[in-house]
Amino acid sequence: MFKILIIIILIYFAYCIIPTFYYKWFKTKAVKNLGDTNNIALTFDDGIDKIYTEKLLDVLNKYNIKATFFIVAKTAEENPKTIKRMIKEGHTIGLHSLEHKDALLKGYFYTKKDFKTSIEIMKNHGLNIKYYRPPWGHMNIFTLKYIKNHRLQLILWNIMVGDWKDYSSSERIENKLIKNISKGSIICLHDGRGTNDAPKRTIQALDTVIPQLIEKGFNFVTMEQIYG
């Protein structure tokens, strides 16, 4: 019984734990930073949110900043006007799964459906998706298979400030961003799914931080501008 348990654990590690940590922590084809350049990328996960994504777009438009939105495909069906606005205002749209399920707990058939259905939804909105970010950055071996099959670029990050958490005040988010952003940073923030109106605090923080980053000489770019 003990041997069987060990085998199961080893299989599970090979299936999802090792791929996740390997792509997060080692040099791979996954994009985690933009190199030694003044370019930085604001990226947003977990939307589209019916309230806060539009408010975030207002702040970005205020400063003429372009960002990359990794959206949950099912929210696209409910928010076509927001998608049109993102495109019109020059933002890049990437995929953040079908319904934000954890790849560590999903098998072959779900993973296949996740990608297939998501890509179809995006195409129905006129989107040719090129960029993918898995929920929580978690991957299994089939995640990697379908990223390759659909010719997607895996985009991770090197700055995350916990903006979705209850205790993350706008001031705390501001301080973490200013302290940690440097040349080539890919910043992962969230415009959906946070607790206690978390996206509201993120938006408030950005309204303060963006002018400071502009003053420091950083150039805001999207994944499309960098990778085509």
Automatic annotation (TrEMBL):
List the residue ranges forming a coiled coil, or say none. none
Question: Keywords on this record?
Answer: Membrane, Transmembrane, Transmembrane helix
Give the GO biological process terms.
carbohydrate metabolic process
| Cross-referenced SUPFAM superfamilies | Glycoside hydrolase/deacetylase
Q: Which domain of life is it from?
A: Bacteria
Enumerate the transmembrane spans: 6-23
User: Which PANTHER family does the entry mention?
Assistant: GLYCOSYL TRANSFERASE-RELATED
Recorded protein name is Polysaccharide deacetylase family protein
